[in-house]
Task: structure prediction
Amino acid sequence: MGARKRLRAEKLKAEKRVTAIASLRECPTSPRKMRLVADMIRGVEINKALGMLRYSKKEASVRLEKLLRSAIANWEAKNQGVSLEETPLCVKTIFVDGGRQLKRIQAAPQGRAHRIRKRSNHVTIIVDRMEVAAPAAKTAPAQATAETTEVKPENAAN
Result:
């Protein structure tokens, strides 16, 4: 293995040690319905996300709330010396993939049959420390120079 490849592998392993991942497999909700709720909490601080999920009317929010609590518990297990209250955590990544489909048949008129697809999904949540942006230094407005203020059109008479 080359040096760059080895260094990159070590870097990825170090990142995996501090981030917490929780996944939900074969959830019997369609991926489209689950994505509506997942998009709501993506990039949000965890306490705010838990509140949003608790008071959402969607059925998928109950499952996502339980999964988010699991991800938080995984983060606490990986970072035992660090207090959860001191560290601002957020939902860094959340994605919903399609799972297995159960194919059923429903009777239709004139001896026909319609196919029903009962969809499921897989959800993965990654919880990590919130990126706190440092206040950017204010840049001084560009000072007007004589060259920029005096614009002489070419067609103008002297």
About this structure: The two ends are 73 Å apart (CA to CA). The first helix runs from residue 3 to 18. The helical segments are 3-18, 31-41, 46-54, 60-78, 146-149.
